[in-house]
Amino acid sequence: MARERLDKMLAGRGAGSRREVTGMIRGGLVTVNGVPCRDPAQKVDPDADTVCLGGCALRTRRERYVMLNKPGGVITATEDAAQETVLDLLPAAERRGLFPVGRLDKDTEGLLLLTDDGPMGHALTAPRRHVDKLYLAHITGTLRPDAAAQFEAGIVLEDGTVCRPAKLCVLEKPPDDGLTAVEITLREGKFHQVKRMVAAMGGRVVWLKRLSMGPLTLDPELAPGAWRELTDSEIEALRHAIEP
Predict the structure, then answer these.
(1) Within this chain, do residues 176 and 209 fall inside the same structural domain, yes or no?
(2) Is the Cα dihedral 43, 60, 239, 235 positive or negative?
Protein backbone atom coordinates (compact mmCIF):
# COMPACT_ATOMS: atom_id res chain seq x y z
CA MET A 1 0.00 0.00 0.00
CA ALA A 2 1.18 3.56 -0.72
CA ARG A 3 2.73 5.45 2.15
CA GLU A 4 0.80 8.43 3.51
CA ARG A 5 1.28 11.26 5.97
CA LEU A 6 0.87 10.27 9.60
CA ASP A 7 -1.66 13.02 10.36
CA LYS A 8 -3.72 12.16 7.29
CA MET A 9 -3.75 8.47 8.19
CA LEU A 10 -4.85 9.15 11.77
CA ALA A 11 -7.64 11.51 10.68
CA GLY A 12 -8.81 9.01 8.07
CA ARG A 13 -9.20 6.37 10.76
CA GLY A 14 -11.35 8.48 13.02
CA ALA A 15 -8.77 9.63 15.55
CA GLY A 16 -9.93 13.23 15.09
CA SER A 17 -9.73 16.12 12.67
CA ARG A 18 -6.40 16.92 10.99
CA ARG A 19 -5.90 19.77 13.45
CA GLU A 20 -6.65 17.55 16.44
CA VAL A 21 -4.37 14.70 15.38
CA THR A 22 -1.57 17.16 14.64
CA GLY A 23 -1.79 18.26 18.28
CA MET A 24 -1.73 14.65 19.46
CA ILE A 25 1.35 13.88 17.37
CA ARG A 26 3.27 16.95 18.50
CA GLY A 27 2.20 16.21 22.06
CA GLY A 28 4.01 12.86 21.96
CA LEU A 29 0.92 10.64 22.03
CA VAL A 30 1.77 8.76 18.83
CA THR A 31 4.38 6.07 18.20
CA VAL A 32 5.38 4.43 14.93
CA ASN A 33 6.83 0.93 15.34
CA GLY A 34 7.37 1.67 19.03
CA VAL A 35 9.27 4.91 18.46
CA PRO A 36 7.66 8.24 19.49
CA CYS A 37 6.94 10.43 16.48
CA ARG A 38 6.27 14.18 16.71
CA ASP A 39 6.29 14.91 12.98
CA PRO A 40 2.76 15.03 11.46
CA ALA A 41 4.25 14.83 7.96
CA GLN A 42 6.15 11.57 8.55
CA LYS A 43 5.22 8.99 5.94
CA VAL A 44 3.94 5.63 7.16
CA ASP A 45 2.75 2.43 5.53
CA PRO A 46 -0.58 1.47 7.18
CA ASP A 47 -0.12 -2.17 6.17
CA ALA A 48 3.47 -2.54 7.40
CA ASP A 49 3.92 -0.03 10.24
CA THR A 50 2.41 -0.29 13.71
CA VAL A 51 0.94 3.06 14.69
CA CYS A 52 -0.25 3.55 18.28
CA LEU A 53 -2.19 6.43 19.76
CA GLY A 54 -2.01 6.69 23.54
CA GLY A 55 -0.58 3.17 23.64
CA CYS A 56 -3.41 1.65 21.58
CA ALA A 57 -2.71 0.28 18.10
CA LEU A 58 -4.85 1.73 15.35
CA ARG A 59 -6.68 -0.44 12.87
CA THR A 60 -4.97 -0.48 9.48
CA ARG A 61 -8.11 -0.73 7.36
CA ARG A 62 -9.15 2.61 5.89
CA GLU A 63 -12.88 3.28 5.73
CA ARG A 64 -14.43 4.22 2.43
CA TYR A 65 -16.79 7.07 1.69
CA VAL A 66 -18.52 7.20 -1.68
CA MET A 67 -20.75 9.95 -3.07
CA LEU A 68 -23.45 8.62 -5.39
CA ASN A 69 -25.87 10.62 -7.51
CA LYS A 70 -28.80 8.28 -7.10
CA PRO A 71 -31.10 8.08 -10.12
CA GLY A 72 -34.81 7.45 -9.91
CA GLY A 73 -36.02 3.87 -10.20
CA VAL A 74 -33.29 2.38 -7.99
CA ILE A 75 -33.95 1.25 -4.43
CA THR A 76 -31.79 2.23 -1.46
CA ALA A 77 -30.67 -1.19 -0.27
CA THR A 78 -27.56 -3.34 -0.23
CA GLU A 79 -29.20 -6.20 -2.13
CA ASP A 80 -32.53 -7.23 -3.58
CA ALA A 81 -33.53 -10.29 -5.57
CA ALA A 82 -35.99 -8.45 -7.81
CA GLN A 83 -34.96 -4.80 -8.07
CA GLU A 84 -31.81 -2.86 -8.88
CA THR A 85 -30.16 -1.38 -5.80
CA VAL A 86 -27.83 1.58 -5.34
CA LEU A 87 -24.92 -0.82 -4.80
CA ASP A 88 -25.60 -2.40 -8.19
CA LEU A 89 -24.53 0.92 -9.72
CA LEU A 90 -20.96 0.23 -8.57
CA PRO A 91 -18.66 -2.44 -10.02
CA ALA A 92 -18.78 -5.63 -7.98
CA ALA A 93 -15.20 -5.15 -6.78
CA GLU A 94 -16.10 -1.74 -5.31
CA ARG A 95 -19.20 -2.78 -3.30
CA ARG A 96 -17.69 -4.87 -0.52
CA GLY A 97 -18.80 -3.70 2.92
CA LEU A 98 -20.54 -0.56 1.70
CA PHE A 99 -24.02 0.42 2.85
CA PRO A 100 -26.19 3.50 2.21
CA VAL A 101 -26.36 6.20 4.88
CA GLY A 102 -30.05 6.89 5.31
CA ARG A 103 -32.65 6.11 2.71
CA LEU A 104 -33.97 7.75 -0.42
CA ASP A 105 -37.28 6.57 -1.87
CA LYS A 106 -37.15 4.63 -5.12
CA ASP A 107 -38.25 7.61 -7.19
CA THR A 108 -36.10 10.15 -5.30
CA GLU A 109 -32.85 11.30 -6.88
CA GLY A 110 -29.68 12.94 -5.68
CA LEU A 111 -27.01 12.73 -3.02
CA LEU A 112 -26.53 9.40 -1.30
CA LEU A 113 -23.48 8.54 0.82
CA LEU A 114 -22.19 4.97 0.77
CA THR A 115 -19.68 3.89 3.40
CA ASP A 116 -18.41 0.99 5.48
CA ASP A 117 -17.98 3.25 8.52
CA GLY A 118 -20.82 2.21 10.85
CA PRO A 119 -20.37 4.88 13.54
CA MET A 120 -20.18 7.64 10.93
CA GLY A 121 -23.31 6.38 9.18
CA HIS A 122 -25.26 6.19 12.44
CA ALA A 123 -24.18 9.65 13.56
CA LEU A 124 -25.13 11.30 10.27
CA THR A 125 -28.69 9.97 10.49
CA ALA A 126 -29.25 10.53 14.23
CA PRO A 127 -31.66 13.48 14.69
CA ARG A 128 -29.84 14.63 17.85
CA ARG A 129 -26.73 15.36 15.76
CA HIS A 130 -28.63 18.08 13.85
CA VAL A 131 -27.19 17.19 10.44
CA ASP A 132 -29.36 19.02 7.90
CA LYS A 133 -30.53 17.32 4.72
CA LEU A 134 -31.54 19.68 1.91
CA TYR A 135 -34.04 18.62 -0.76
CA LEU A 136 -35.33 20.24 -3.94
CA ALA A 137 -38.94 19.33 -4.73
CA HIS A 138 -41.32 20.15 -7.55
CA ILE A 139 -44.89 20.14 -6.32
CA THR A 140 -48.40 20.54 -7.64
CA GLY A 141 -51.37 21.96 -5.79
CA THR A 142 -51.60 25.04 -3.58
CA LEU A 143 -49.72 25.13 -0.31
CA ARG A 144 -51.35 26.65 2.75
CA PRO A 145 -50.34 30.29 3.30
CA ASP A 146 -48.81 29.32 6.67
CA ALA A 147 -46.96 26.27 5.32
CA ALA A 148 -43.49 27.67 6.09
CA ALA A 149 -44.52 28.51 9.65
CA GLN A 150 -46.02 25.05 10.10
CA PHE A 151 -42.76 23.46 8.95
CA GLU A 152 -40.82 25.59 11.43
CA ALA A 153 -43.16 24.59 14.27
CA GLY A 154 -43.04 20.87 13.47
CA ILE A 155 -45.90 19.29 11.56
CA VAL A 156 -48.04 16.55 13.08
CA LEU A 157 -49.17 14.22 10.30
CA GLU A 158 -52.63 12.67 10.01
CA ASP A 159 -51.47 9.40 11.55
CA GLY A 160 -50.07 11.22 14.59
CA THR A 161 -46.44 11.18 13.46
CA VAL A 162 -44.65 14.19 14.94
CA CYS A 163 -42.08 15.79 12.64
CA ARG A 164 -39.23 17.80 14.03
CA PRO A 165 -39.01 21.48 13.04
CA ALA A 166 -37.99 21.84 9.40
CA LYS A 167 -37.58 24.59 6.84
CA LEU A 168 -39.66 25.25 3.72
CA CYS A 169 -38.59 27.81 1.14
CA VAL A 170 -40.65 28.48 -2.00
CA LEU A 171 -38.29 29.38 -4.85
CA GLU A 172 -39.07 32.43 -6.96
CA LYS A 173 -38.24 30.83 -10.30
CA PRO A 174 -40.69 28.00 -11.07
CA PRO A 175 -39.76 24.92 -13.15
CA ASP A 176 -40.57 25.02 -16.87
CA ASP A 177 -43.48 22.62 -16.38
CA GLY A 178 -45.43 25.16 -14.34
CA LEU A 179 -45.03 23.36 -11.02
CA THR A 180 -43.89 25.04 -7.81
CA ALA A 181 -40.27 24.52 -6.76
CA VAL A 182 -39.46 24.40 -3.06
CA GLU A 183 -36.41 23.65 -0.95
CA ILE A 184 -36.98 21.64 2.21
CA THR A 185 -34.46 21.14 5.00
CA LEU A 186 -34.88 18.23 7.43
CA ARG A 187 -32.87 16.86 10.36
CA GLU A 188 -34.48 13.43 10.31
CA GLY A 189 -35.62 10.88 7.76
CA LYS A 190 -39.01 9.36 8.47
CA PHE A 191 -40.79 7.21 5.86
CA HIS A 192 -41.79 9.35 2.83
CA GLN A 193 -41.35 12.37 5.10
CA VAL A 194 -40.98 15.14 2.54
CA LYS A 195 -43.95 13.89 0.53
CA ARG A 196 -46.13 13.49 3.61
CA MET A 197 -45.25 16.92 5.01
CA VAL A 198 -46.00 18.61 1.69
CA ALA A 199 -49.28 16.68 1.42
CA ALA A 200 -50.26 17.89 4.89
CA MET A 201 -49.87 21.46 3.62
CA GLY A 202 -52.03 20.92 0.52
CA GLY A 203 -49.44 20.02 -2.11
CA ARG A 204 -48.17 16.89 -3.83
CA VAL A 205 -44.54 16.11 -4.61
CA VAL A 206 -44.04 15.01 -8.20
CA TRP A 207 -40.22 15.13 -8.26
CA LEU A 208 -37.69 15.07 -5.43
CA LYS A 209 -33.91 15.35 -5.26
CA ARG A 210 -31.55 15.53 -2.28
CA LEU A 211 -28.93 18.23 -2.73
CA SER A 212 -26.85 18.00 0.43
CA MET A 213 -26.25 16.29 3.76
CA GLY A 214 -24.63 18.55 6.31
CA PRO A 215 -21.48 19.99 4.68
CA LEU A 216 -21.55 17.40 1.87
CA THR A 217 -23.04 18.78 -1.35
CA LEU A 218 -23.85 16.74 -4.44
CA ASP A 219 -21.08 17.14 -7.01
CA PRO A 220 -22.63 18.85 -10.08
CA GLU A 221 -20.21 16.90 -12.28
CA LEU A 222 -21.77 13.57 -11.25
CA ALA A 223 -24.37 12.37 -13.74
CA PRO A 224 -27.29 10.29 -12.40
CA GLY A 225 -25.92 6.88 -11.48
CA ALA A 226 -22.31 8.11 -11.29
CA TRP A 227 -20.18 8.02 -8.15
CA ARG A 228 -16.81 9.02 -6.73
CA GLU A 229 -14.80 8.70 -3.52
CA LEU A 230 -15.03 11.61 -1.10
CA THR A 231 -12.05 13.91 -0.85
CA ASP A 232 -10.09 14.19 2.39
CA SER A 233 -11.57 17.65 3.01
CA GLU A 234 -15.12 16.31 2.56
CA ILE A 235 -14.48 13.47 5.01
CA GLU A 236 -13.00 15.86 7.56
CA ALA A 237 -15.99 18.20 7.16
CA LEU A 238 -18.37 15.31 7.86
CA ARG A 239 -16.41 14.38 10.98
CA HIS A 240 -16.71 17.95 12.24
CA ALA A 241 -20.45 17.90 11.52
CA ILE A 242 -21.06 14.97 13.86
CA GLU A 243 -18.80 16.04 16.72
CA PRO A 244 -20.78 16.25 20.00
Answers:
(1) yes
(2) positive
